[in-house]
From TrEMBL:
Name this protein carries in UniProt: Lipase domain-containing protein
Pfam family, one: Lipase
Molecular function, one GO term: heparin binding
InterPro entries from the UniProt entry: AB_hydrolase_fold, Lipase, Lipase_hep, Lipase_N, TAG_lipase
Catalysed reactions listed for this entry: 1,2,3-tri-(9Z-octadecenoyl)-glycerol + H2O = di-(9Z)-octadecenoylglycerol + (9Z)-octadecenoate + H(+); 1,2,3-tributanoylglycerol + H2O = dibutanoylglycerol + butanoate + H(+)
Keyword terms, alphabetized: Glycoprotein, Heparin-binding, Hydrolase, Lipid degradation, Lipid metabolism, Secreted, Signal
Domain of life: Eukaryota
Highest classification ranks of the organism: Eukaryota, Metazoa, Chordata, Craniata, Vertebrata
Family statement drawn from the similarity comment of this UniProt entry: Belongs to the AB hydrolase superfamily. Lipase family.
Coiled-coil segments on the chain, per record: none
Length: 418
C-alpha cells in the first residue's frame, strides 16, 4: 500500500495491517514451522510500523498505539476480561478462577489479602497450550514456606495464540485487564498494589509493563520481573511502549537470548529495568547449542528440535525457578560495562552495591533512573550457580614479570564453571 493510502485509512485488524505489505501467513503446520514463519515476517512488520508512524496523521487513528496516548482509557471499568486469572492454593492444583467483580470467587479460591500476590504472565504461544514451566514456577513459589504468598496466573492464551504481530498488540489489552483486576482487589479487600509482584516471560514481560502503566493512581505496583522480555517490535521503541523502570517501584530483568539473527533477537537486548542481568553475556546460554540436540531428544523426544530453539530464551525462566528451589545456591551478578570486562575479572567487586543476587531474592534497594547492568557466568543445567573461579595466570607465566592485562588477555577461557 502506498504511503498516501496509509495516511488516509487504518486497517481494522493486525491481520489486515500485515496485508498492507502483501504479507500472508498461517498458523497451520508444526510448532516449529510456526516459529520460523513468524520470525521471517517480523522484519517486514517492523518496516511497516516505521512507515505507518512516518506517514499517518495522529488524529486519523481512533485507537492509538502508545500507552500514554491511551491513558484516558486506562481507568475505564471493565465488567469482564478475556484473560483468565487463576489462583493456586497448593503446589500441584491447576488453579481456581478469580472473576472480576465477583468477591465470592476470592473466598472460594482462598485469596489471603494479608499475603503478597505473585502473578505469573506467560508469553506468545505457537500451539495454544500453557507451557510446563508455568506449573514448575507455581510449585516453586508455593514451596516458600518461610515467605508464603498468593500465587496467580494470568492466562491470556486465547490472545497469545495468534500471529506474533497480533499477539504483540494484544499485550496492551491484557495489560489493561491485569491492571483492572489489581484495582478491583484493592477495592474489594484490604490489599495494596505495593504487595504485587508480576513475573512476565517474553511478551508477558511487556504485558506486566503495560499493567503497571495502566493501573493509574499515585502509587505503583511493587515489583515487576521481566524474564527475557520479547525483542521483535519492542527493541528500540520508546519506554512508553515496552517494559521500563517506570512501571513499578522495582523492576528487574533477566536477558538470556539477545543474539541477533537478520537484525533481530528473540529477547530484548537493551536495558529495561532498574537491574538488568545478563547471564553469560545474555546473548546465548550454555547447553542450548544445536550440538546439544541429542541430549534434548533423550529428554523431550520429538519436541527436541523446538526445545533446542527456545532453550536460551526459556533459560531466563529456569534461572528464576532455580533461585527459588536452591536457596543455598544463589547466583551473584556483578555491575560491569560488558561481558568482555567481566570475563577479564575486572568487575568482581561487591562494594557500594556493585553486585546483586539473580532471581527471586534480588536486593531491591537503591534504585536509580539509570539501569544497572550486571553480568555473571552460570552452568549449563540446574543448579546453575556451580563453582566459578577467578581468572588465573598460566603456570608458565610469572605474574610479577607481566602486566596484569597481558596475561588476562592471553587466557582463552578466564572463567570456568563446574
Amino acid at each position: 500500500m502506498a504511503p498516501s493510502t496509509l495516511a488516509s485509512a487504518r486497517p481494522t485488524s493486525a491481520l489486515e495491517e500485515a496485508a498492507c505489505l502483501g504479507i500472508t501467513f498461517s498458523l497451520s503446520g508444526t510448532p516449529l514451522a510456526g516459529v520460523l514463519q513468524n520470525l521471517w515476517v517480523v522484519p517486514e512488520l517492523q518496516r511497516w510500523e516505521r512507515c505507518q508512524a512516518k506517514h499517518r496523521p495522529s488524529s486519523s487513528f481512533a485507537e492509538p498505539l502508545g500507552r500514554r496516548a491511551r491513558a484516558a482509557r486506562k481507568n475505564e471499568t471493565l465488567q469482564e476480561t478475556k484473560t483468565r486469572f487463576l489462583l493456586f492454593e497448593g503446589e500441584t492444583d491447576k488453579g481456581c478462577q478469580i472473576q472480576l467483580h465477583r468477591p465470592d470467587t476470592l473466598q472460594q479460591c482462598g485469596f489471603n489479602a494479608s499475603l503478597p500476590l505473585v502473578m505469573i504472565i506467560h508469553g506468545w504461544s505457537v500451539d495454544g497450550l500453557l507451557e510446563d514451566w508455568i506449573w514448575q514456577m507455581v510449585a516453586a513459589l508455593k514451596s516458600q514456606g518461610a515467605q508464603p504468598v498468593n500465587v496467580a496466573l494470568a492466562d491470556w492464551i486465547t490472545q497469545a495464540h495468534n500471529h506474533y504481530a497480533i499477539a504483540v498488540r494484544n499485550t496492551r489489552l491484557v495489560g489493561q485487564e491485569v491492571a483492572a483486576l489489581l484495582r478491583w482487589l484493592e477495592e474489594s479487600a484490604p490489599f495494596s498494589r505495593s504487595h504485587v509482584h508480576l513475573i512476565g516471560y517474553s511478551l508477558g514481560a511487556h504485558v506486566s509493563g503495560f499493567a503497571g502503566s495502566y493501573i493509574g493512581g499515585k502509587h505503583k505496583i511493587g515489583r515487576i520481573t521481566g524474564l527475557d522480555a520479547a525483542g521483535p517490535l519492542f527493541e528500540g521503541t520508546s519506554s512508553n511502549d515496552r517494559l521500563s523502570p517506570d512501571d513499578a517501584n522495582f523492576v528487574d530483568a533477566i536477558h538470556t537470548f539477545t543474539r541477533e539473527h537478520m537484525g533481530l533477537s528473540v529477547g530484548i537486548k537493551e536495558p529495561i529495568a532498574h537491574y538488568d542481568f545478563y547471564p553469560n553475556g545474555g546473548s546465548f546460554q550454555p547447553g542450548c547449542h544445536f550440538l546439544d540436540l541429542y541430549k534434548h531428544i533423550t529428554k523431550h523426544g520429538l519436541n527436541a528440535f523446538a526445545q533446542t530453539i527456545k532453550c536460551a530464551h526459556e533459560r531466563s525462566v529456569h534461572l528464576f525457578i532455580d533461585s527459588l528451589v536452591h536457596p543455598d545456591l544463589q547466583s551473584t551478578a556483578y555491575l560491569c560495562s560488558g561481558m568482555d570486562s567481566f570475563s577479564q575479572g575486572l568487575c568482581l567487586d561487591c562494594k557500594k552495591g556493585r553486585c546483586n543476587t539473580l532471581g527471586y531474592h534480588t536486593r531491591q534497594g537503591g534504585q536509580s533512573k539509570k539501569s544497572k547492568q550486571l553480568f555473571l557466568v552460570t552452568r549449563a543445567q540446574a543448579p546453575f550457580k556451580g563453582e566459578c573461579g577467578r581468572p588465573q595466570p598460566s603456570r608458565y607465566l610469572k605474574a610479577q614479570k607481566f602486566p596484569r592485562s597481558l596475561f588476562l588477555e592471553w587466557l582463552p577461557v578466564p572463567f570456568q564453571c563446574f
